[in-house]
Amino acid sequence: MLKNFLQLTKPTIMLLVIITGATALVLEGSLTTKPLHFILVLLALYLTGGSANALNQYFERNIDSKMSRTSSRRPLPLKKISDSSALVFSASIGVIGVLIFGFFFNWFSAFLSLSTILFYSFIYTLMLKPNTPQNIVIGGAAGAMAPVGAWVAASGKMALDPWVLFLIIFFWTPPHFWALALFYRDDYVKANLPMMPVIKGEAKTTSLITTYTWVLVGISLAMFVSPKMGLIYGGVSVIAGFWLIKKSHEAGKLRDEKQYRGLFGYSIIYLFVLFAAVILDGIV
Fold first, then answer.
1. If pLDDT is split at 50, 70 and 90, which confidence band does 71 have?
2. Measuring CA to CA, which of 4, 198, 217, 256 is 20 to 30 A from 100?
3. Of the given ranges (31-40, 175-184, 227-236), which has the lowest mean pLDDT?
4. Residue 45: alpha-carbon gap to chain centroid
């Protein structure tokens, strides 16, 4: 049962959220000598992000039952958790996460985390995703907020660095999810969701993937001007960015499932490696 509830939070996605939040904390620096507070921020990030993901699954439980990618994996279509239990769990961990931000850090970060939950759960899931092929582009803002929220929790104020990290995640999200949507296109057709490959087709989608990838890599290179970044990040951003651009062009040229899966898988590695490089340079 615990495993099923954990699946509601989408732990694989949340691992990337935790890494991006930890990256912001390392750059900000004030909690690196306070490990309990550092961990507490990450816990609050997991609870609030997990709440948004769980509410997303609750609202999309009927859609998930129609899609092969989700019908055999997620606990609600499999009837392993009742709908009411999922809703209570989703709301509860969200409230706990927001309160951790508020009482242990500041109410600014609590407000940001609550806004992220509401935006992803209601605006993205219920309004954008069923109605526009730009759903991932706009909705990606919610998934990109972890560095900003973590930074504000630690410092109580905004700064430029977490917003650069935000932009990296924001422009990473469409190529990542469009690659997924390309090889699960039939699922989205069955679910009647207007994902980009369904509405605009493969050629337009792969062209957009390439465009967003170039912008993403450009922003990642701009991060190198930060005085906190060194040769580790510089080398990783150039090499990893080159391969991401290469894979996006190959996907656009060949347009087959192997290329789409390869691009999707590498995009995860790219983000992980890029943020790990930021952490290493921040520590060194």
1. confident
2. 4
3. 227-236
4. 12
CA 60/CA 8 separation, integer angstroms:
12
Tokens coding 62: 């009927």
User: What is the distance between the alpha carbons of residues 146 and 149, in angstroms, rounded to a whole number?
Assistant: 5
- Indicate the helix (H) or strand (E) that contains 171: helix 160-183
Domains belonging to the chain, first-starting first, are 1-157 (1.10.357.140), 159-284 (1.20.120)
Residues 6+ apart with CB under 8 A from 231: 281
Asked whether the predicted pLDDT for residue 170 surpasses 80, the reply is: yes
Contact 280, 232 (CB under 8 A): yes
The 10 Å CB-count burial string (b at 16+, else e) for 258-282 is ebbeebbebbeebbeebbbbbbebb
Residue 225 has pLDDT above 80, yes or no: no
Distance separating alpha carbons of residues 148 and 135, to the nearest angstrom:
21
C-alpha distances in angstroms, 63 versus 57, 191, 268?
Answer: 9, 6, 25
Residue 17 to residue 169: CA distance in whole angstroms: 10
With tokens 């000598």, the residue in question is: 33
Averaged over 133-157, what is the pLDDT?
93
